């Protein structure tokens, strides 16, 4: 026996309409629930931290310019040490700041003054050899002998043995005191080592003390 048995035809039609409306409403409600449930699974409410599929909080990228943004540290190079200024070497003992031998105003005879000098008087002027020896020593020369010399020579000359240190020393001494330098002559060849200065009267003009 059906639900609508015993009802009139109009009543049956109305009942069927109500049943159809109910079915349609049920279908629409089911569709709405299905679509709404899907949206709830994917939507994230405001203020909620997004999570990954395994439930862990999803890392968020820092905003540009934020303090937490990692900036590579600037390379700090160690300060370079300034090279020490090279000071000029200190003068050695015995050195002077003046011009060296051969330069204007320099002591041109300094490297030869260790050579011994023998001073002989070949004039009639008493004490001429002693005066000359004093002049030579005052200039730094190494006078080892002072005496007279017999005979007569025309002018004051410094004599040396060629090929020895006496040659350079005799020329330097002669240049300093204004007379000539020559190799030794026969009569004085066998005298001991050293420059031999044989004085004549012309040396007085070169007296370093002016006497």
UniProtKB/TrEMBL annotation:
Region Disordered, as annotated, extends over 33-111
InterPro entries xrefs: LytR/CpsA/Psr_C (IPR027381)
User: Taxonomically, which superkingdom?
Assistant: Bacteria
What name has this protein been given in UniProt?
Answer: LytR/CpsA/Psr regulator C-terminal domain-containing protein
Gly residues: compositionally biased ranges: 95-105
Compositional bias of kind Low complexity: 40-58, 66-94
* Domain called LytR/CpsA/Psr regulator C-terminal: residue spans: 115-203
* Matches recorded under Pfam families: LytR_C
Organism classification? Bacteria, Bacillati, Actinomycetota, Actinomycetes, Pseudonocardiales
């Amino acid at each position: 026996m059906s639900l609508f048995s015993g009802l009139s035809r109009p009543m049956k039609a109305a009942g069927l309409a109500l049943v159809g409306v109910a079915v349609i409403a049920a279908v629409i409600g089911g569709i709405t629930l299905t679509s709404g449930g899907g949206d709830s699974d994917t939507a994230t409410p405001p203020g909620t931290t997004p999570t990954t599929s395994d439930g862990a909080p999803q890392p968020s990228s820092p905003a540009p310019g934020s303090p937490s943004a990692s900036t590579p540290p600037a390379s700090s190079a160690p300060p370079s040490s300034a090279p020490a200024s090279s000071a000029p070497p200190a003068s050695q003992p015995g050195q002077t700041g003046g011009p060296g031998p051969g330069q204007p105003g320099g002591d041109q005879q300094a490297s030869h003054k260790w050579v011994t000098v023998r001073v002989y008087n070949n004039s009639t002027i008493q004490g001429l050899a002693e005066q000359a020896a004093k002049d030579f020593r005052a200039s730094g020369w190494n006078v080892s002998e002072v005496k007279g010399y017999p005979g007569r020579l025309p002018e004051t000359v410094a004599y040396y043995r060629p090929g020895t240190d006496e040659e350079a020393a005799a020329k330097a001494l002669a240049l300093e005191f204004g007379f000539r330098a020559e190799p030794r002559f026969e009569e004085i060849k066998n005298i001991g080592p050293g420059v031999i200065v044989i004085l004549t009267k012309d040396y007085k003009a070169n007296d370093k003390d002016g006497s």
